[in-house]
Amino acid sequence: MEVNRRKMLGQQYVDRRREISTNYNPLHPHIYQLQDSYFVKEFLDIVNYAKSKTASSEELVKMMSIENAERVFSFQIFTKTFCKEFMEEITCFESTNLPKGRPNTMNNYGVLLNELGFDEKFMTPLRINYLRPITRLLFPDWGGDNLDSHKAFIVKYKIGEDLALNYHYDNAEVTINVSLGKEFTEGSLFFGDMKWVPVDETTCTEYQHKPTCAILHRGQHMHGALPITHGERYNLIIWMRSSETRNKMCPMCDMKPTLVKTVGYGDGFTKQSDVSLCSPL
Ligand SMILES: O=C(O)CCC(=O)C(=O)O
Ligand SMILES: [Fe+2]
């Protein structure tokens, strides 16, 4: 039953990807290919430092903001121009009648970026060449040095549509969450504790997103998004996965996964494009 559902989801992805690549005319074709010029200098400095032979996590975090929640770090990543063009691209795609898979069962809006064609030349080099040197130092215990796949998507909150996101953990070892804009009030992220800590023993802290900035956290660190009270909020979310870590235990059901072949990265369980039978969010 679950195997068939998985196969059907895989086929739906292939069909949507084909239909979108045939019929969608990108508004800003250049942004589908990652370039250094999309990043602010401070972020490139962080990456260069992280790549250096003598880099240490202690020195690396001094180049970032350390947030109130444990092991949550923030830094500016993209330029304003890039964020604007990226959001214009998403808005342009949203306005079409082309098919759209939604990021997960918690979001009714938003866009899966692999369907739009952002994986090969944008998200994959971003993960390998820029983010992994950082996660290698900050999250070695969560497969930070071998995050070998990802699921990248846009979440969107707007008055009259989705306003907030329930308290949850991600189907990820490490998550990066980038605020793209547009203009919004409220809508802070809140962090509790790791998922195995009872809720009544948890104290939450808030983080107010700032457009162009990224927040990096462990996927199993419980969090949610408070309602926006005005405007529109778009965020780029990349759930980064380590097959080595999750092949031993599925982060969603805490059991050893049973694998079934799929297309694309699936849920990131092996390097051979297989997917677990565990249900994602
Ligand atoms: O809305 C946000 O900033 C958080 C989104 C999130 O946590 C998720 O999609 O997993
Ligand atoms: Fe999340």
UniProtKB/TrEMBL annotation:
<feature type="domain" description="Fe2OG dioxygenase">
    <location>
        <begin position="148"/>
        <end position="242"/>
    </location>
</feature>
<keyword id="KW-0847">Vitamin C</keyword>
<protein>
    <submittedName>
        <fullName>LOW QUALITY PROTEIN: 2-oxoglutarate and iron-dependent oxygenase domain-containing protein 2-like</fullName>
    </submittedName>
</protein>
<keyword id="KW-0560">Oxidoreductase</keyword>
<keyword id="KW-0223">Dioxygenase</keyword>
<keyword id="KW-0479">Metal-binding</keyword>
<keyword id="KW-0408">Iron</keyword>
